[in-house]
Amino acid sequence: MTATTTPDLTKRAEPIGSTPGDASSLARPSRGLAHDTWVLAKRGLVHMKRQPEQLSDATIQPIMFVVLFAYVFGGSIRIPGFPDEPRVYREFLLAGIMAQTLVFTAFGAAMSIANDQKNQAIDRFRSLPIARGAVIAGYAVSNLIKTMLPIIIMSVTGYAIGWRVRGSVVDTVAAYGLAVGFAFAMIWVGIWLGAMVGTPEGVTGIGFAVIFPLTFIASTFVPLQGMPGVVRTIAEWNPVTTLSDSLRELFGNPSVDPAANAPWSLQNPVLYSWIWVAIIICVFAPLAVRAYTRKNVQ
């Protein structure tokens, strides 16, 4: 287990981005929100580089899910309307695993802010001349950059198991744009969760109890046709379902066409997913700022 170093809060504060011991920089004011946000985002990226084990949820876990479902469960799952070939399910699966990984982005953001609260790093930030809002914006930017890693890993892993992009260039760009947009929305959920709970243990418990089931009550791994009544209704309106279906549609991968009487969410998965992106950001970004301010500033 890695020893945790508690910062010496009795030391005089130095401006963010300055060289320790640089006395001339002690009186240097903040260089603005954009500069301070980028400096704090770089801090998060440096932590990612020095503690790669913390990236297991974004690297090893998605690969494990792909291999597990493609080669263990995949032989028993059929996609209606498509020939019984392993390639069909693997192409169906990849978008689902990518959607699940994007939802789990909330965990990374929540853990980063919870760890900083536990290690009193945020108390240190309060003593520095940092632009108002830069700390929380730094968490959002660093975690958004971190999100690119699992998206790349998923694409490479998918290619290795037979997944192919069969859509147009425009649709492919739209698919990756939707993926990044949804991840950005989930980051705000994670920041709010981390600020509210305050401990890594609490984040793990609440996150898995609430977020993990949402990724399974959806078309992430299997078509909706085999689900029973109430569960199927929840899955039809679950944004994880429409995100998975949107990625399949835009990548040109196998997907199940919705019936004529299917809910609006399934008839318009891309639009429905973007609506959810907007709703999540509009709701959770203010909640995250409020929770962080109430707990760490006031």
In words, what does this structure look like?
The chain contains twelve helices and no strands. By secondary structure, it is mainly α. The protein is elongated, with a radius of gyration of 21 Å. The relative contact order is 0.14. Residues 1-27 have low confidence and may be disordered.
Provide the fold topology.
Elements: H1 33-50, H2 60-73, H3 86-103, H4 105-118, H5 121-126, H6 134-161, H7 169-197, H8 200-216, H9 229-237, H10 239-251, H11 264-267, H12 269-296
Short description, anyone?
The chain is 66% helix and 0% strand. With 298 residues, the chain is mainly α.
Q: Helix content range of the residues, please?
A: 55-70%
The proportion of strand residues reads: under 5%
Question: In angstroms, what separates the terminal alpha carbons?
Answer: 34 Å
* Largest sheet features: none
Q: What letter string, H or E per element, gives the SSE order?
A: HHHHHHHHHHHH
What is the mean predicted local confidence, pLDDT?
Answer: 82
Broad structural category: mainly alpha
Tell me the overall shape: elongated
Tally of extended strands?
Answer: 0
Radius of gyration: 21 Å
